[in-house]
């Protein structure tokens, strides 16, 4: 069987770098393309170190239609995974046009290049945020999407629709949307991981930065939610497990195993974990005490969301394997390495 080539837009970022490693390990040739607008070369270098080889790296902006076309001219691309997007919820509220422009135009350019180059398999990096607030838990792929509460969330919904409609209209374009729950952790080598710019918005980078002394104290947003311990419930998914789901999805597309030309899968564990449970697990597995305090609820947070991952388990042949403890140990090893403490 000839080797297949996967284009990974945003391949130098947190999720893109882990996916690149797993694709490469599974025998795919990977072309990484990134404009480095939200990351430096740390993860790219880490990927090459883990794999023991240099991977092709193209510095480009996917909003540049000409550059995207030239990329498809230059490479025989069997599948493209699109990560290159802005992802800060609060920033998207302040700068909606920046979000709509970057996140939609880049994806339109990719699908347009795919269809004019004889078709392509397109994997879109979507989010559980499309489910919004719901009482019916866990969520399945047929759970209704709720109106988005931020421009960021809206770009995820619109891109899903762009992919669905393009698959219906253009011969040879096939698509999978993976809806991620809360990706956390780092590669067990501690050579790649999350590199948030400025003050982290997400829980785990804030925890590890507090533990390492970069932040004084973690604020736990809300202690009066209608959950057992009063804090929100999420489905935290290990980044390497998440990356492996992409390999399964790409194989399903390139090996012609799709049942529909556009498919959606939840990528989660099916296991709800509260903020306090996560903090306790972090302290226990890493044998340390975290400085944290309760703070008011954060606007826009849903009380609880977790996945029913059955469709991915059965159709993709993928299941989340790593425990929250292993994942939090990996996140801590990465943070310590960044701080030069290990
Ligand atoms: C998790 C829990 C917070 C920080 C967001 C996006 C989503 C996705 C992942 C990304 C919540 C609490 C957090 C802190 C806290 N996409 N928390 N103190 O909000 O579930 O999802 O990130 O690119 O689309 O919406 O993740 O990690 O921010 O929060 O108490 O300092 O931790 O209230 O309950 P969230 P999160």
List the helices and strands and how they pair.
Layout: E1 5-9, H1 14-25, E2 29-34, H2 42-51, E3 57-59, H3 65-74, E4 79-82, H4 89-94, H5 96-116, E5 120-127, H6 151-169, E6 173-180, E7 182-184, H7 203-212, E8 218-221, E9 233-234, E10 236-238, H8 239-254, E11 262-267, E12 273-274, H9 275-286, E13 292-295, H10 310-316, H11 324-338
Features:
about 350 residues, alpha/beta, seven-stranded parallel beta sheet, two-stranded parallel ribbon, about 40% helix, about 15% strand, globular, binds UDP-4-deoxy-4-formamido-beta-L-arabinopyranose
Descriptive overview:
This protein is α/β, with parallel strands linked by helices. Helices cover 40% and strands 17% of the residues. It has eleven helices and 13 strands. It has a seven-stranded parallel sheet, sandwiched between helices. The protein has a two-stranded parallel sheet with strand order 7-10. Strand 1, helix 1 (14-25) and strand 2 form a beta-alpha-beta unit. Helix 1 (14-25) crosses helix 8, helix 3 packs parallel to helix 5 and helix 7 (203-212) packs across helix 11 (324-338). It is globular. The mean pLDDT is 97. The structure holds UDP-4-deoxy-4-formamido-beta-L-arabinopyranose. The site of UDP-4-deoxy-4-formamido-beta-L-arabinopyranose (WQD) has 18 residues, from helix 7 and strand 8.
